[in-house]
UniProtKB/TrEMBL annotation:
InterPro entries: 2-oxoA_DH_lipoyl-BS (IPR003016), 2-oxoacid_dehydrogenase (IPR050537), 2-oxoacid_DH_actylTfrase (IPR001078), Biotin_lipoyl (IPR000089), CAT-like_dom_sf (IPR023213), E3-bd_dom_sf (IPR036625), PSBD (IPR004167), Single_hybrid_motif (IPR011053). Residues 236-258 are annotated as: Disordered. It is an enzyme of class 2 (transferase). This is Dihydrolipoyllysine-residue succinyltransferase component of 2-oxoglutarate dehydrogenase complex. It comes from Amylibacter marinus. Belongs to the 2-oxoacid dehydrogenase family. Residues 196-231 form the Peripheral subunit-binding (PSBD) domain. SUPFAM superfamilies: CoA-dependent acyltransferases, Peripheral subunit-binding domain of 2-oxo acid dehydrogenase complex, Single hybrid motif. E2 component of the 2-oxoglutarate dehydrogenase (OGDH) complex which catalyzes the second step in the conversion of 2-oxoglutarate to succinyl-CoA and CO(2).
Length: 485
């Protein structure tokens, strides 16, 4: 018997939700074949079979919150050359009573409230079908049937508070007797099974109040990516008549809309607030004349696209400029670990990207060793994957410095918030033509404000200002990048 466990979920990520099982108990599986998907605060993680064999048991059904290294399932390994026996029809009932227990609720979570019951005593239930929902102060957890059968008992009611590991009810599970079908039964057409959408998709649809999403999964199954695409390109909503406003003091305004925050949005809010509370964050500003960069880009953009197959943008110039400046001011590329400062002799550049569900920061590893073309290709590829919700957890880990471009949205000035545990983040802004004094003459120049937010615990003002000046010098004279000056 081989255990299937939760893999490493990433830096600072301690739990995930079982989103979808693609195999059922008794199914044959091949080594490295995908068994299920786990959903974390940011991405979906695929879990593959470590060996070939038969899925003997699913320990964590869909909707269960699990921690790192928790047991998900068991696989009975296939013997070399063995042929699986042919199952004979059962003629006797093998029903047994299975307790329904409160699943793992997550780290430091000890109790939950029964939010809703979807089944009553005596109802038939299928394996993995939702029986009830539990609400904690962090997430909603679905309790599903571990086997097919009949709901024999319920020990709780809606609104009850239950502890982790408590018994919720009992299921009479087993294989019912089978008999040869009658001619009438054989002639009757088989009912069409309802297509079950991915739980992660159902949850995202509910959180964003979306219905009628076209599914691209098997048999039209709606997947998480389908919902993200629908959020990014919403269909015009039909006009809905609003109910009359109640006269009570707590009546909801019909002009308001209340939507529960997604787990990603909650995580973004928590991490950014933690950054403000932990780091001694300070921001310094400067401005850069973009004349030379824009002229260089205009002159070579067509040749660059023809040779490398990707457009030449501004981000590669800023990435290169930051990499050069970080070599001179290494504390901006460092982080605090307890009572030690960890200096990084490499640059893993985080590039903040807006998505339909929130801000994510994919990381370009070893950006200091990459060419302009390599940087542009990496930014384009990771940006597209971020918008499609296909970024893996590993692609958002290990960043040492971050660039955030608020200028694409028209921002003229802002103070970016640190992405912990990093000690520096550069904010780019909109390019605006302004009157400047150059060689005692007033001229019109394309100018951009730059903002460097830094952790004052390890970065002094002199280092922060020097870093920003070096970035400015490299952009105003791009030849410095070629000369490594």
């Amino acid at each position: 018997m081989t255990n299937v466990k939760v893999p490493t979920l990433g830096e600072s990520v301690t739990e995930a939700t079982v989103a979808t099982w693609f195999k059922a108990v008794g199914d044959s599986v091949a080594a490295d074949e995908m068994l299920c998907e786990l959903e974390t605060d940011k991405v979906t993680v695929e879990v593959a079979a470590p060996v070939a064999g038969t899925l003997a048991e699913i320990v964590a059904p869909e909707g269960t919150t699990v921690g790192v290294d928790a047991l998900l399932a068991n696989i009975t390994e296939a013997a070399a050359g063995a042929v699986p026996p042919t199952a004979e029809p059962s003629t006797t009932s093998t029903a047994k009573t299975v307790d329904i227990m409160v699943p793992t609720l997550g780290e430091s979570v000890t109790e939950a409230t029964v939010a809703g019951l979807t089944k009553a005593v005596g109802d038939s239930v299928a394996q993995d079908e939702v029986i009830m929902e539990l609400e904690t102060d962090k997430v909603t957890v679905e309790v599903t049937a571990t086997a097919s059968g009949t709901l024999a008992a319920l020990d709780v009611a809606e609104g009850d508070t239950v502890s982790a590991g408590a018994k919720l009810g009992a299921l009479s599970a087993g294989t019912p007797p089978t008999s040869a079908p009658t001619p009438a039964a054989a002639a009757a057409p088989a009912p069409t099974a309802a297509v079950k959408n991915a739980p992660s998709a159902e949850k995202l649809m509910a959180e964003n109040n979306i219905t009628n999403v076209a599914g691209t999964g098997r048999d039209g199954r709606v997947m998480k990516g389908d919902v993200l695409a629908a959020i990014a390109n919403p269909a015009p909503a039909p006009a809905v008549a609003q109910p009359p406003r109640s006269g009570g003091p707590r009546a909801e305004d019909p002009r308001e809309e209340r939507i529960k925050m997604t787990r990603l949005r909650q995580t973004i809010a928590r991490r950014l607030k933690e950054s403000q509370n932990t780091a001694a964050m300070l921001t310094t500003y400067n401005e850069v004349d973009m004349t030379e960069v824009m002229a260089l880009r205009t002159e070579y953009k067509d040749l660059f696209l023809k040779k490398h197959g990707v457009k030449l943008g501004f981000m590669s110039f800023f990435t290169k400029a930051c990499c050069h400046a970080l070599k001179e001011i290494p504390e901006v590329n460092a982080e605090i670990d307890g009572d030690e400062v960890v200096y990084k002799n490499f640059v893993n550049m985080g590039v903040a990207a807006g998505t339909p569900t929130g801000l994510v920061v994919p990381v370009i590893n070893d950006a200091d060793q990459m060419s302009f073309a390599d940087i542009e290709k990496a930014i384009a590829e990771k940006g597209a994957r971020a918008r499609d919700g296909k970024l893996g957890m590993a692609e958002m880990q290990g960043g040492t410095f971050t660039i955030s471009n608020g200028g694409v949205y028209g921002s003229l000035m802002s103070s970016p918030i640190l992405n912990p545990p990093q000690s520096g983040i550069l904010g780019m802004h909109a390019i605006q033509k302004r009157a400047m004094v150059v060689n005692d003459e007033i001229v019109i120049r394309p100018m951009m404000y730059l903002a460097l937010s830094y952790d004052h615990r390890i970065v002094d003002g002199k280092g922060a200002v020097t870093f920003l000046v070096r970035v400015k010098e490299a952009l105003e004279d791009p030849r410095r990048l070629l000369m490594d000056l």
